Amino acid sequence: xxxxxxxxxxxxxxxxxxxxxxxxxxxxxxxxxxxxxxxxxxxxxxxxxxxxxxxxxxxxxxxxxxxxxxxxxxxxxxxx
Length: 80
What we know:
Distance between the termini: 16 Å
Shape: flat
Number of helices: 4
Structural class: mainly alpha
Largest sheet: none
Strand content: under 5%
Number of strands: 0
Number of domains: 1
């Protein structure tokens, strides 16, 4: 992945021409490769596009979990 050069993404406004501008905005925020820059579930639920579906008093909550850890990542980090 490190050798892949960054490319400019597609213009969602042109690709989804005529669609709801709030839906396009939410897609842009959800489809971000870097998870640290991607919108969270809570942020997505609070997005204006989903406001009619978001009922905070009727939604389960749970403690945040630790990020997934993969065995190959541990080996990669130790090899540098």
